[in-house]
Every structure is written in C-alpha cells, then in structure tokens.
Amino acid sequence: MTTATGHAVAIMARMGYAARGIVYLLVGGLAAVAATGQGGQTTGSRGALERLLTAPLGHALLAALALGLIGYALWRCVQAIKDTDDHGHGPKGVTIRLSLLVSAITHTLLAVFALSLTISIGDDSSGGNSRSLANWLMQQPFGRWMVAAVGAVMLGAGFGHAKKGATAQFHQHFDMPSLVQVWAYPICRFGLAVRGLVFLITGTFFVIAAYQIEPDEAGGMAEMFDAFRSSPFGTWLIGFVALGLVAFGTYSLLEAIYRRVEPDS
C-alpha cells in the first residue's frame, strides 16, 4: 500500500469511527428520552437515521453519515484482510476477523439505507437491517447455517467487547493524553461492556432464527428494545442500555481522534 493510499485509508477510517459514533449517540439518546418518559420511542440504527430527515439540513447530514459509514465498512475490510491489529490465524483471531467482515456488511447496508433516505426511496422498516441480512442469507445455499454462523460470530464479538471493556484492551490502540484517559477510559469501558451485551442479545436472535428457519426471528437493536419493553423492569433495562450506547458512541468519537490507524501494519 503506497503512502498516499495509506493516508487516504486512515482518513476514511477516522471518518468511519466518527459516523459510527454519531449513529450510536442518536440511538442511545432516543432510547434515553423514551426511558425517562419524555416522549419519543426506542429504535435501532435505521430508525435513528430516519429521524435525521426532520432535522435542519437532514438530507445533507444523512449523506455525510452514509459516506462515513461506507468508509467504516471499507476500513473493517482492511482490518480483517490485512490483520492490521495482529489478531492472528488462530480460532480467536479468525472469529474476530470474521466479526469485522460482518460489521463491514451491516454498515454497508446501513449506508445504503441512509443514501436511499436522501433520495426518498427508503422503506418503512426502522429495524429491518438485521432481518434484511438474515432474509438474504436464508435464501442462499446453506442459508440456515450461514445465519447461524453470523449469530455465532456476533456472540463471539459480544464476549470480545465485554472482555475488551473489562480489561481496557483498547489502550494498546490509543494515543490518548493521560489527562483525557482519566475521564475517557471509564466511559469507553462501560460503552464496550454494554455493546458486548447488545451483541450477545442480537447474536442470540440470529441463532434462534437459524434454529427455527425463520429469518423474521433475527433482529437488531430495535427488536432488542421491543423485547425489553415487554419484560419486567423494562424501562430500567432500556435506560441502562441507552446510557451504554451513548458511552459507546463517545468511545467511537474518541477512536476517530485518538486511535492509531495503521493500514500498512
């Protein structure tokens, strides 16, 4: 990879982290408002993007986010293929790298959805990102097993995020001043832990969908919030996860600024 290409990839990656952070801040913020009873409703990443249509310069914001999400998906591919973070070829490393490719696919779908909203051809499904993926996979040869594999990768990513938050493994990838670390690291650790929980729940949805051969059983954050809403202490669960998603969004924005991005490593 040439120096110019590596520089372009680094810019693309930082734009991607920023776009991901904004999406999670939107999802978490909307859920927090709903949990406090101040109106609004919980939603997933698609629903959060749809809300931007009502904001000033909403179409321009959506186009910018779509560009950032595409950049993030491409960076995830670079991370998985070139193994820029040295995960290796063992079972753990392969699982992490597969999760990066799954992340690339889901963020590409989200970017396409955002672009479709800017030209008014978006669908009415706010939480259909995961179900769209499950539907498409189920129609392929060995589709049931592919859906199960995605679920297994998500479960692995959930445990990985939880461990990353508990042990602050992200430290090795950050060039962050110590004064920033004091307040930023607790936020990052909490956000990663809650994002791990979300992965575990959505991964379970995919495994159930594969077991029942029913792609509509798959789901993302919107379906997770729906499940919380119908459970005991649902408001508290929604509020807890909402705070965690806001923390994860903050973590992503910090990655856009302080993460070491080394495409040639």
Fold and architecture overview:
The structure is a single chain. By secondary structure, the protein is mainly α. It has one domain (3-258). It has 9 helices and no strands. The protein has helices at residues 3-35, 45-51, 58-82, 91-118, 129-138, 143-167, 178-212, 221-229, 234-258. The longest helix has 35 residues, at 178-212. The chain is globular and about 50 Å long. The model is unreliable at 122-127 (pLDDT under 50).
Observed structural traits:
mainly alpha; 0% strand; single chain; 265 residues
Give the proportion of residues in helices.
over 70%
- Radius of gyration, in Å, reads 18 Å
Could you say which overall geometry the principal axes of the C-alpha atoms support? Answer: globular
Spatial separation of the terminal alpha carbons: 10 Å
Task: Describe how the helices and strands are arranged.
Layout: H1 3-35, H2 45-51, H3 58-82, H4 91-118, H5 129-138, H6 143-167, H7 178-212, H8 221-229, H9 234-258
Helix pairs in contact: 1-2, 1-3, 1-9, 2-4, 3-4, 4-6, 5-6, 6-7, 7-9, 8-9
